[in-house]
Structures are given as C-alpha cells and as structure tokens.
Amino acid sequence: MSSIGTLARSTIRARLLPISFANSRRFASTLPLTIKPSITELSAGRLGERNLEKAIRSLHEDDLIVVSDVIPHAHLDQLNAKMVSDARTLQARGKDMPFNYNVGNIQQDPPPVKEYFESSIFLNPIASQITTSMLGPKPKWTFCSGNSAMPPASVSPPQRQPVHADADFAHPTHPFALVVNVPLIQFTPGNGSTEVWLGTHTGELSGLQIQEGAHGERASGRIQKPLLEQRRRARGPSQPVIEKGSIVIRDLRLWHAGMPNTTQDVRVMLAMIHFAPWYRNPMRLELAEDLKPTINAQYDLQVPVNWVRREEAEARYLNRGFGNSYDFNQTV
Fold it and tell me: InterPro entries from the entry (predicted)?
C-alpha cells in the first residue's frame, strides 16, 4: 500500500470525526473579561502595560474584550437620539429596510457628518491602541455601521438571530480583523444584548466548513446546529450586560447572535472594523467633507475615504445594504 493512499484515507477519516473542542479551556467563564481603566489611563488615552496585556490575552483566548467607562455619556446621548430617529425611518420601509436575518434587527449607518462625529466614539485612542497591538501598526478602518435591535411590534414579534460568524468567506486562521462595537445605551438581556460564544474564533471552530449559507445571502454564516450543541457542552454562550460608555472589541470570526429587544427603547450598537495593515480589503468609508480635518489629524489608523459633499452624505447614508451584503474578504 502506498504512503499516499494511507495519508488520503487518514485525512478522510479525520474529516468525518466530530469536532473535539479539545482546545477549550476547562471551566472557562462564559462571560467576557471587562477592564476598567484608571484615571491616569483615561487621561492619557492609553492603557498601561498590565491592562493592555489583559486585553490582548483576552482577544487571543476568548476573542472579545470589554473596556468600560471610556466614552463620555453626553457624546453617546447626542448620537443615540439621532440614530433612534433614523432607525424609525428605516423601520417604516417595511420589508425594504436593511434588516439582518429578521426585521427586528436593522443594519444602520451613523450620520457621517461633523456634528455627530465624536472622536471619543469613532476614533477612540484606547480602542486603536488595542487593535494596533493585536493587528500591527496603523490598522485599516474601512467599515463603519451599526445595528439596531427594535422594540417588538405587531409586524415583527421578538426574534433572535441564528448563531453565526461575520467571517462568511475563506479567511486567514490568524487575527486579521477586529470589530469595535460601541453600545449607545446600557446593554442588557432585556433590550437585546448580543449573545456571544467566547473562544470560537480559531481552529476547528472557525471556517466555512462549519457554516451554512453562501456569502452575500441574508442568512449566511450560520453555524451548523449539531456543532452548537457540542460547543454548548464545552463552553456555552452568554448575554452579558455592557455598561454605557464601554467599548467592546471582538474578533470578526466570533460566533454570536443578535437577540430580541423586549423593551420599548431602540437599542443601537455601532460596529467599526479595523483590518490588519496587510489585509487587502478594498472597502472605503464614505464621509462628508467637513470631517476631513478630524480624519487627517489622527495618526493611529489608515482611513481610506471617499469624500463627498455634506448634502450628498446626508442623502445617502441611510441607503446602505444589510450586513451580509458587505464583502469583508480581501483581494488576491
């Protein structure tokens, strides 16, 4: 018998075996780690060595870290009022709204104009410090959007999303993209705090072989149900409370699910993706020209931008696609 034939049969047998989850940390918490920066760290806009180490370790092991109390509430309140109003505008479009999996979860861009663009939110220096430490100098910020969990309505009773990964394409097996999420209000299980499955970004838990649905479909990236039950026994999901003023940084490969909002308040969460400087994603932001001085004054990130007149930016930002219609892949 040839060694090639033996290797081929052993490879086939390996593919037929269930995922072992051997890389799961025994008795690991289902809740994410939260770092609370000191007054000195907040004043400097940088974490000290110990907190930065915790953040990077958590991203490698759990694929998610929460940093609390880093954004002034007044900055969040102004943006939240505008985006809640915009969410109602999108909801009124019915089935034509840019929803994700179900009409209770709307894909929604923030207004890309000066009066709603606070650097503490969109260019947070601690967020950039963490993503730079993980991905390399000057990550590329090429995606800026958000999702809004809508209160229950007669046409859209509370629904959850299927557990899925946003990396619904062939992707590297090492870190290449981090999502910076900013909740505009406190997130709780009642208003649809995201369900997260920590530690699902590497090895056998990551890749197209465990997903259902082709890229570009509204329901792509779904994790196969038998694997969910296997993973639940090793390390189940959680729906954490995230305090207002926090940033949440997660690996794009993380398993997660949007959850129903059973309150009467719209729950908005921003999502900004920082790609590694070597990652060849061709997307660009579209921003109003009045933001040029702000973007040009920062040095932490590469920010590819299509600049447009303010009137054009205001007319276009609510006419984007749903989440899975974006292409986070890289060019050849």
Answer: Fungal_Metabolite_Diox (IPR051961), Phytyl_CoA_dOase-like (IPR008775)
Residue-wise pLDDT tens digits, 245-255: 999 999 999 99
Run of H or E residues at 202? none
Sequence ranges of the domains in the chain = 30-323
Give the integer Cα–Cα distance in Å for 166 and 329.
11
41 contacts: CB under 8 Å, gap ≥ 6: 47, 48, 51, 126
Cα separations in angstroms, 177 against 74, 109, 140, 201, 328 = 29, 19, 9, 11, 9
Is residue 214 very low, low, confident or very high in pLDDT (cuts 50, 70, 90)?
confident
Q: 272 pairs with which residues across the strands?
A: 144, 180
The two structure tokens encoding residue 25: 């940390």
- At 6 the pLDDT is 37
Looking at 207-291, list the stretches that DSSP marks H as alpha helix, in order from N- to C-terminal side: 225-234
Contact 163, 256 (CB under 8 A): yes
Rounded to a whole number of angstroms, the distance between the first and last alpha carbons of the chain is 39
